[in-house]
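Human: I would love a firmer grasp of how sequence relates to backbone shape in proteins. Take your time, and here it is.
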Amino acid sequence: MGIENQTWVKEFILLGLSSDWDTQVSLFVLFSITYMVTVLGNFLIVLLISLDSRLHTPMYFFLTNLSLVDVSYATTIVPQMLVHFLSEHKVIPLVSCAAQLFFSLGLGGIEFVLLAVMAYDRYVAVCDPLRYLVIMHGGLCTRLAITSWVSGSVNSLMQTAITFQLPMCSNKFIDHISCELLAVVRLACVDTSSNEIAIMVSSIVLLMSPFCLVLLSYVKIISTILKIRSTEGRKKAFHTCASHLTVVVLCYGMAIFIYIQPHSGPSALQEKLISLFYAILTPMLNPMIYSLRNKEVKGAWQKLLGQLNGLTPKLGT
């Protein structure tokens, strides 16, 4: 039967994590709590950076962008998933599915590029500290942030447009928690080899290229740290990068695992768990990592809490 005679779907059904009601209620409670923690944690990081002048530096400018990306990414996935946990019919309209794919894919790409930008920032801070503020001036930081947002958005727009031009025919069951790129492409009733090649190319451009820049930056950073004679100096230089390096390992590891080899990639269950990792765990952990492993952030928290404690007696009088 020709494609012109096929039935095109107007909505999809997300199969989600489980069909058991008790399990879905438990997952609803668990993910509702983690989502609220994610939103609150990232909001507090952005608020703290905006309030404390000591954090008005390039590193924290990029961290603000990272927090906005994280909470936005979680918001594109989690609320829809929570609604479906308590719904008998887990339906998502075609337009909503396309929008979810566009925003989740775009924000994911933005984060990977942004992490490479942050690695360059750490490279300049460690390898050329005396010229750090001269090199990482406000104009450059703004251009690097805009580049991250634009590159991720453009890639997502192209991928979404290509994907939803495919005839889905009568296939409407998406074996995933959201409208994820590979899960949607698999619904097509035509050969999707060209789409999978496009996914591979975009993965190399927006995943492996930034990853290589991160690796290069850290090779230079480690080389510089090893040349520092004092133990205290080496510790200080390492702590400058520790938080960012932890986030890099979390974010890049599974993304490389899932997207570089679409044919021989993980199972449907593994893909769902990986998506949960990015939608819930990573956005929740990032503020904690930067708070617990960063002396400047901890100092800013202590200062803010001290100011709030000082206001309490005044409010009571």
Summary: The first strand starts at residue 11 and ends at 14. Confidence is low (pLDDT under 50) at residues 1-7.
